[in-house]
Structures are given as structure tokens and as C-alpha cells.
Amino acid sequence: MTAEVHVVEYGSQSIEYSLIRSKRRTLGIHVYPDLSVTVRAPLKAALGEITKLVRRRGAWIIKKQHYFATFLPPVPPSKYESGETHRYLGRQYRLKVMSGDKPATKLKAGHLEVIVTGNTNNGQVQKQLQLWYLERANQVFAKRLEVCLEPFQKTKIASLELTLRTMKTRWGSCSPRGRITLNTHLIRLPKRCIDYVITHELCHLKQPNHGEGFYRLLNSVMPDWRDRREKLNWYGSR
Predict the structure, then answer these.
(1) Which domains does the chain have, with CATH numbers?
(2) Within a 13 Å sphere around the CA of 211, how many CA atoms are in the beta-carbon half?
(3) Per-residue burial over 215-224, b = 16 or more CB atoms within 10 Å of its CB, e = otherwise
(4) Residues 64 and 31: beta-carbon distance below 8 Å
(5) Taking the model in full, what pTM does it have?
(6) Would you say 47 and 5 are in contact if contact means Cβ atoms under 8 Å apart?
(7) What is the pLDDT of residues 155-212, one digit of tens each?
(8) 3-class SS at 35?
(9) CA distance linking residue 236 with residue 172, whole number of Å
(10) Edge to edge, what strands does the sheet with 111-116 contain?
(11) What is the β-pairing status of strands 13-22 and 37-42?
């Protein structure tokens, strides 16, 4: 059986679920330990009816996901010491902390080198590395926005402003006035994921909600968006 993937907006959160139709009489919702959600429905059940059920059970679904999330292996916090790995554009680099006369951060021979002045201080390494990520994000995101805008030439997106912000629960957002805000942590992910988030927000400038028109536009400008979103979710869980 082929599963359809759908998304329902519940408050400020999105609930993604796989829809499987079969010869059954009732609708059923299942939340699994990997946080995935599956809805099993009769062959002739209307999508609107299914959407209403998912939204009505939204609080329960999110509560179950939060419960299962407590059993997922925790991600150890960074100590900003030589030897640990840090991600940049989807690739992992071994951190190499060095002392020098002038502070600097650069990629070199598969390492992420951070040169600090004076005695090595973890707080100094963290601050320097975050600044480097921010500088790279400003450069990379601006270039990716140019690439992502190309398929929208016919839709005539008028004014556009790009801003960066560190966010805990969202990869990106947009305002009706044409301001797109991207999470600085995106710079750690592959360009395919960055492009998906940017394109998603560009579609919202034309289609504010996740209705039929939104997905029709998203399909037309990025046919493989489901694969990209799956990869984004994979990185987001780590």
C-alpha cells in the first residue's frame, strides 16, 4: 500500500502524517516511537474529514510525540574542545583548537580550525565559532535565495528581505510584507535542505496557509520537496 504524506497545521506547530487507505470502516491515528504519525482510513473517506480528525486529536498527537521523544538518545552538548565534530553544509568536520597571535576560524584539510589568542578558553572558542557560522550563513543564504528565486520569476515576487535569527523550534518563517527569516542553524545542513526551507517560505509569500494552492505551487517549483523535507527532518532530530 502506498502512503500519502499530508501536513496539518495545529496552532504554531505542523503535524505531518502518512495516510494509508484500506478496506476498513473507521479512521485510526497511530503515533510511533520514532515520532512518526500514521492515519488509517476507509477507501472513500474524504480528505477534509481526515484533516478535521487529525486537527481535533492534535493535542493528543503532540503529547504522544513529546512522550516518545524523552526516550530518544540525547545529543551530547558541545564542549568546544579539539576532537569533537561540528557540521557545516551537511558535512562533519573535526574541531581543531589552536593558539596563535591572531584569532581565526577556517576549514582546512577536513578540519574546522579555530585559532584563539592566549590561553585556550572554551567560551572563547564557542563565541568565535558561532561568529564564523553567522558570517558563513549570511553569505550562503543570500546565494541560495538567488537560486531559489529563479523558478518564481512568473509569480512576480515584488519586495523581499532576508534576515537571520537563531530559533529553537522553526527553520524559517515569513511575513506578509516579504520578510523571510531563516534559522542560523540551517548553515549546518546540506544546501538541498536550505533550499527547501527558503522555497517553502517563498511559497508562503504567495499562499499564506498550507492549503491546496500552497502545495500546488510547491510541487511546481520544487518537485522533489518531499525528499528534501525528509532529509531536513532527519537532521533536525540529531
Answers:
(1) 4-69 (no CATH), 85-131 (no CATH), 141-236 (3.30.2010.10)
(2) 5
(3) eebbeebbee
(4) yes
(5) 0.69
(6) no
(7) 777 678 899 998 877 888 888 788 899 999 999 999 999 999 999 999 988 888 878 8
(8) coil
(9) 13
(10) 85-88, 91-99, 111-116, 104-108
(11) parallel
Burial 169-180 (b: 16+ CB within 10 A, else e): eebbbbeeeeeb
Q: Which residues lie closer than 8 Å to 223 by C-beta, 6 or more apart?
A: none
- The Cα 54–Cα 90 span in angstroms is 33
Q: Which three cell numbers stand for residue 136?
A: 558563513
Whole-number Å distance between alpha carbons of 214 and 203: 6
What is the tens place of the pLDDT at every residue in 79-90?
A: 888 888 889 998
CA distance 118 to 114: 13
Bridge partners of residue 18, in order along the sequence: 5, 38
- Grid cell, residue 48, equals 477534509
Handedness of CA 125, 181, 157, 215 (dihedral sign): positive
